[in-house]
Design goal:
It is a single chain. By secondary structure, this protein is mainly alpha-helical. It has one domain: Rossmann fold (3-Layer(aba) Sandwich), CATH 3.40.50. It contains 4 helices and 3 strands. It has a 3-stranded parallel beta sheet with strand order 2-1-3. Helix 2 links the parallel strand 1 and strand 2. Helix 3 packs across helix 4. The protein is globular, with a radius of gyration of 15 Å.
Length: about 130
């Protein structure tokens, strides 16, 4: 089940049985002259969809832009400032939490996101506590 392909009544029903959501997170950046720009977003998205199908956990839309400043020399790369990414992750968590989601599982596909994701987790945790 995918959040963006569901109606709000379907999500309301889901929340009666589960408070979990899986959020794929990646990047849009170069992967050589023949690689897809979306590789780092597609991989966690595909894994999340499969995991969701097998476990029944709802899958959120893919957060497909991340930390890619080091790839900006390559056309098509899209990047976020760390502060923007942290703010967006916090907004996603706040929105989902407001509707009753209590377990947010972020599935990262891009190594360049790790430090920013950890900083966002710290801010999310301390904002909830």
């Amino acid at each position: 089940m995918q959040l963006h392909l569901s109606s709000w009544p379907e999500i309301e029903g889901y929340l009666k049985t589960s408070k979990a959501i899986l959020i794929p997170i990646g990047s849009t950046e170069q992967h050589g002259p023949n690689g897809l720009l979306g590789t780092d977003a597609l991989c966690p998205e595909i894994i999340a969809k499969r995991a969701g199908d097998e476990s029944g956990i709802l899958v959120a839309p893919t957060f497909n832009v991340g930390q890619a400043q080091h790839h900006m020399a390559f056309p098509g790369t899209i990047t976020l400032k760390p502060s923007t990414m942290i703010a967006a992750m916090k907004d996603w968590a706040e929105s989902l939490g407001r509707h009753g989601f209590e377990r947010l599982y972020w599935l990262n596909g891009h190594g360049g996101n790790i430090n920013t994701i950890n900083a966002a987790f710290s801010e999310i945790y301390h904002g909830i506590s």
